[in-house]
């Protein structure tokens, strides 16, 4: 992901990085994705038994990065997100790496814990 972000931004990094998953490595990686004077938003809490991450605080210091947490969204923000998805401006299918039927929930949860998955989807009903 770091390589792709740097390619897309001519080596500058992202202005804003939103970590919306409960994976410590994703929070750590955010520092490698953000540009100088950029922002990082931690929108996904970590498991209570593993709440700590290792970060290079020099990146925060020298690049003057701001990091903050966010816990919830407003109805207006949900509507905006849905509108962006419906319009095709955000292509959510590109983020789905694995799909499982509901009866394979155990396998889906194991896959979600692996670093080789991004978003794992459970389909509650069989395809029509």
Key features of this structure:
128 residues, alpha/beta, three-stranded parallel beta sheet, two-stranded parallel ribbon, 5 helices, globular
Class based on secondary structure composition and strand pairing: alpha/beta
- Approximate helicity band: 25-40%
So how many helices?
5
- Mean pLDDT, all residues: 93
Question: How many strand units?
Answer: 5
- CA radius of gyration: 17 Å
Overall body shape: globular
What are the low-pLDDT stretches, counting only 5+ consecutive residues below 50? none
Report the order of strands and helices: HEHEHEHEHE
- Biggest pleated-sheet summary: 3 strands, parallel
Percent strand equals: 15-25%
Terminal CA distance reads: 34 Å
Instruction: Provide the spatial order of strands within the biggest beta sheet.
Output: 1-2-3
Summed up:
With 128 residues, this protein is an alpha/beta fold.
């Amino acid at each position: 992901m770091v390589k792709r972000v740097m390619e897309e931004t001519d080596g500058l990094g992202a202005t804003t990085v939103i970590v919306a998953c409960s994976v410590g490595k994703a929070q750590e990686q955010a520092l490698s994705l953000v540009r100088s004077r950029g922002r990082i938003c931690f929108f996904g809490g970590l498991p209570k038994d593993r709440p700590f991450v290792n970060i290079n605080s020099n990146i925060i210091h020298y690049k003057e990065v701001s990091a903050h947490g966010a816990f919830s969204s407003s109805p207006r923000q949900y509507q905006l997100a849905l509108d962006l998805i419906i319009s095709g401006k955000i292509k959510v299918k590109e983020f789905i790496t694995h799909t499982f039927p509901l009866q394979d929930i155990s396998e889906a949860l194991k896959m979600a814990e692996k670093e080789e998955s991004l978003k794992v989807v459970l389909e509650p009903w069989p395809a029509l």
